[in-house]
Design a protein that fits this description.
Blueprint (H helix, E strand, L loop, with lengths): L1 E6 L11 H17 L9 E9 L9 H7 L11 E10 L4 E8 L3 H23 L1 H8 L22 H15 L5 E9 L2 E8 L5 H21 L6 E7 L6 E7 L1
Parallel strand pairs: 2-3
Antiparallel strand pairs: 1-4, 2-4, 5-6, 6-8, 7-8
Helix pairs in contact: 1-2, 5-6
C-alpha cells in the first residue's frame, strides 16, 4: 500500500527566518495532499522524498516542515516512519514528490490471518466447551462397597460353637469312662473349664497314663473338628486330689 503526493512549488527551509513563509508552506502542502485524496496509513512506513530543484539547495533543511505538515493527513505520528530517503535532481521548476509506502511483512500478515481464522476460533471453542471437555476426560471414581466384617462369636451357652465343642470334649472323655468317674465343666467368658474326676481305684502310674490319654484324646478330637485354629489347651491341678483341671481358651 502506498500513496504519492506531488507538490508543485518550492518547499520552505528550516533556515528561513520568515515564520509566515514556513506556515504558508505547510498549509499549502496540506491542501494539496487533501486535494490528491491523501489518507491515514498505519503501521511501519517508508517515506521517499524527491526534490526537483531549479536552484541547488540543501535537501535536509526541508525534512522537518514537510513531515510535520503531513501529520494527521498521511499518518498519525511521524514516529511510525521507520525509513526515510530524500534525494534531489535539477529541474527547471521546483517540485516535491513524496511517496509513502507501508512496510508489508508477509510473515506478520500470515500470522495474523492464521490467528484470526484458526487459532482464535479454536480458543473460543475450547473456552466455551472447557467444562464439558474436562468432565468427559476425568472418569468418575468407582465406589467400592465396604465389606461387612462379622463380629467374632463369643463362646457362651447359646452358641453353636460352644455346644458342639462341649459335646466333642465330653465324647472324648467318655472314651475313658472306665477310668473317669465324673466329668464336670463350666463356661466362663470365652473359655470352657472341665474337671474330669479320675477314678480313685487307679494307681499313680495309671492316673498319669489316664491324664496323658485324655490329653491325646482331646487333641485328636479338636484336630478332627478343626478347633485348634481357634482354641488352645492347658492343663492344671484342681483342689481335689484326684481331679485334673483342663482349660480350653479361645485364641
Amino acid at each position: 500500500m502506498k500513496q504519492i503526493i506531488v507538490y508543485k512549488d518550492k518547499p520552505a527551509s528550516i533556515n528561513n527566518k520568515n515564520d509566515n513563509a514556513k506556515t504558508a508552506y505547510q498549509n499549502s502542502l496540506r491542501k494539496v495532499a487533501n486535494q490528491q485524496d491523501a489518507f491515514i496509513m498505519d503501521g511501519d512506513l517508508i517515506v521517499d522524498i524527491l526534490w526537483q530543484q531549479s536552484n541547488p539547495a540543501d535537501i535536509d533543511n526541508i525534512i522537518k516542515y514537510t513531515l510535520d505538515a503531513l501529520k494527521g493527513i498521511c499518518y498519525n505520528d511521524d514516529k511510525s516512519i521507520i525509513k526515510l530517503t530524500i534525494s534531489k535532481e535539477h529541474s527547471t521548476n521546483d517540485q516535491l514528490t513524496i511517496t509513502i509506502k507501508s512496510k508489508f511483512i508477509i510473515s506478520k500478515f500470515i500470522k495474523k490471518i492464521v490467528f484470526k481464522t484458526i487459532i482464535k476460533p479454536l480458543l473460543r471453542y475450547i473456552n466455551s466447551n472447557y467444562q464439558d471437555m474436562l468432565t468427559a476426560q476425568i472418569p468418575k471414581p468407582k465406589i467400592e462397597p465396604i465389606p461387612k466384617i462379622s463380629p467374632p462369636k463369643p463362646i457362651n451357652q447359646n452358641n453353636d460353637i460352644t455346644t458342639n465343642l462341649t459335646q466333642d470334649i465330653i465324647s472324648a472323655l467318655n472314651s475313658q469312662k472306665n477310668k473317669i468317674d465324673i466329668v464336670e465343666f463350666s463356661i466362663k467368658g470365652q473359655k470352657i473349664i472341665l474337671y474330669p474326676q479320675i477314678s480313685q481305684n487307679l494307681s499313680a502310674k495309671e492316673r498319669s497314663n489316664t491324664i496323658k490319654s485324655i490329653q491325646e484324646s482331646l487333641i485328636n478330637t479338636l484336630s478332627n473338628r478343626d478347633y485348634l485354629a481357634n482354641f488352645q489347651i492347658s492343663f492344671g491341678s484342681n483342689a481335689s486330689k484326684n481331679a485334673k483341671k483342663i482349660v480350653i481358651n479361645k485364641i
